[in-house]
Amino acid sequence: MRVQGIPYRTVWAEGDSVKMINQTLLPHRFEIVELSNHRQTAEAIRTMIVRGAGAIGAAAGYAMAQVANEAPETSFREYIEAGARTIQETRPTAQNLFYAVNSVVEAIFGAATTADARKAAKEMAGIIADADAAECQAIGEQGAALIKDGARILTHCNAGWLAFVDWGSALAPIYAAVRGGKSVFVYADETRPRCQGAMLTAWELQGEGIPHAIIADNAAGFYLRRKEIDLVIVGSDRIAANGDVANKIGTYEKAVVAKENGIPFYVAAPATTIDTACPDGDSIPIEERDENEVLTITGLNSSGVVERVRISHPAARAYNPAFDVTPARYVTGIITGSGTYAPGRLADAISSPFFAGTLQRS
Ligand code: MRU
């Protein structure tokens, strides 16, 4: 996608470095970060400089290629295994991260020499990133068919191009529909505590010239009940084998209220988000994040400086689960690059041509 006319991916490799858009500064500043070793790249995933399932998957793949590059001949295997652990420990929920690390590790250990292993790691990381962009573009084409001209669409968090290498999952159908000449209106949930909807989704939609409004998280039910929303499209960080879906905290409520009001609720995700080894939503690891994300809020002050302010009394404590699980019965369909499937038909999605490497989990 383009930023001020220049095409960007969210994350890419340049020489031995990994480069990425610093998402913690958006929408106020657009900056590229350069990370010269795997520890820095892992830290960027942990601190959410890069975030979103596909983007952290691609970043993890590139970080694993950095591990292979750095690994000394004398302790090659140990260094690879330790590096893989460091990357896998950054964030627990998004399946794409584990898929990417495992795929690159498999490519490394499948090579005959350390030189071949380094080359294979770099190639596999590139393939994973390219496949992510390609499947998201295909999700756009598949999902656009579900969007009627004039549709009013609710989305939650940011599952746009910033959350992937390019295009996005939930927003890709919207981009494709608009490029195909349809008009749409998007309701973007603000998505407390980190406000990815208000800060990232709204910025993306603005960049594409798509009419939208940010709504408070607790306003979605109001619009769903009044039938002012025609369909809901969200992303996912991990989809269990039974079709239960983990996504940003607050998704479950939207799904229940959508069903109550007879409004279709779609989940858009590449096949790499499906975890065949995870039987159901209760088995998906849910990240618990720092309470300060709830106790504070970040924004631009009147002097043009980005500031974090506290919104509660000094002794207040907070709970901060980052994701929730929406049971499959609330999901109308899962939009992948190879088609839109009922949650019970995930086996069709995982025969997708978009898989680059292994299917196994951490
Ligand atoms: O915590 P984040 O920002 O990495 O969470 C990921 C998300 O943005 C959402 O859960 C999204 O809807 C699915 S990931 C494309």
Bound ions, cofactors and other small molecules, one mention each = 5-S-methyl-1-O-phosphono-5-thio-D-ribulose
Main sheet: strands, sense, barrel? 7 strands, mixed
- The total of beta strands comes to 18
Rg (CA only)? 20 Å
User: Which percent band covers the strand fraction?
Assistant: 15-25%
Based on helices, strands and strand pairing, what is the structural class? alpha/beta
Provide the succession of SSEs: EEEEEHHHHHEHEHEHEEEHEEHEEEEEH
How would you explain this protein's 3D organization?
With 362 residues, this protein is α/β, with parallel strands linked by helices. It has helices at residues 38-46, 53-70, 76-88, 95-109, 114-144, 172-179, 196-207, 220-225, 251-260, 292-295, 346-349; strands at residues 2-3, 6-7, 11-14, 17-21, 32-35, 151-155, 184-189, 212-215, 231-234, 238-240, 245-248, 265-268, 274-275, 296-300, 306-310, 323-326, 333-336, 339-341. A seven-stranded mixed beta sheet has the order 8-7-6-9-12-17-18. Strands 13-10-11-16 form a four-stranded mixed beta sheet, covered by helices on one side. A hairpin with a 2-residue loop joins strand 17 (333-336) and strand 18. Helix 5 packs across helix 6. It starts with a strand and ends in a 13-residue tail after the last helix. The mean pLDDT is 96. Residues 51-53, 157-159, 163, 169, 196, 234-237, 247-248, 322 line the site of 5-S-methyl-1-O-phosphono-5-thio-D-ribulose (MRU).
